[in-house]
Amino acid sequence: MPIENIPEIYIDKSKNLQDIFVYDFKMTSDVVKSKVNLSMNMFSFLQVGKKQVHFANNSIAVNKKQSLLLKKGNWLWTELLDIEAIYYCKLFFFSERKLKDFLKKYTNDIHPYQEETPYFVIENDEYIAAFINSLSSTTFTNHSFSDALLVLKFEEIMLYLLNKYGSRFEYYLHSLISKEVSPFKSVVESNVHSNLKLEEIAFLCHMSLSTFKRHFTTEYNQPPGKWLKDKRLQKAKELLQNKDLKPSDIYFEIGYNNLSNFSVAFKNKFGFSPTDIPKPEL
């Protein structure tokens, strides 16, 4: 089963990928299973047929009574014909840049953490049905103001769904934004549980120790020494609780040069020595 790069396979190779565009998808095969590399977030407005999408940890199946907003990523999906012997859906793609523009314009930048979910199920109603009917790739291909119209259509459906689903949809939209880790944080967090000293981690970040400390405090709102110490002692506690290990087996790998210093730091943080740590109940 080949991997389909979507929406790239729907785009004329001589043209650039647009920030927002519509594609009318029709199928007359009984069942089509696809490995999909979805490089843009996408509405799937199913009009005839059934669709099932498999994600890493779950799956979702919809028919024409529902629509899906899918997060970009690698998914497996199956498209099935309905009793009308046809499968027809309208795919509405939008870039992360346009999503950020929309969120900045209409929503609050401060929002609770939302666990990332690869899809949002939309219950179709009369308004959404009318919106779907207004979408057509031909309408937005040869129109003088096609780009402006597409932005308006994008904002229209987003605003309607914000009104329909409230904060749940708003938090979902924020979860679609890529969470990029800076090179600095990548180096720090790759060495959290190592035995490297601060100056050694600073060296890996191409910084002097003083610059590293200033940058760290800006990124994490906490001095690096305390932050690393807490993380490493917590890791030590987990190792001693869940594995058949002794304090002498782990003190060096989490950054302590001798067992005595490790034992003192551990007791100061948790209130008991590493040799007295309670084991989890079976």
Question: Mind explaining what this structure looks like?
Answer:
This protein has 282 residues and is α+β, with helices and mostly antiparallel strands. It folds into 2 domains: 3-175, Jelly Rolls, CATH 2.60.120.810; 183-276, Arc Repressor Mutant, subunit A. 39% of the residues lie in helices and 22% in strands. The protein contains 10 helices and 10 strands. The chain has helices at residues 96-106, 126-134, 146-165, 167-175, 183-190, 198-204, 209-220, 224-242, 247-250, 259-270; strands spanning 3-6, 20-27, 31-38, 41-48, 50-54, 59-62, 66-70, 73-80, 87-94, 119-123. The strands form 2 sheets. The protein has a 5-stranded mixed sheet with strand order 1-3-8-5-6, with no helix packed on it. A hairpin with a 4-residue loop joins strand 5 (50-54) and strand 6 (59-62). Helix 6 packs across helix 7 (209-220). GO terms for molecular function: DNA-binding transcription factor activity; sequence-specific DNA binding.
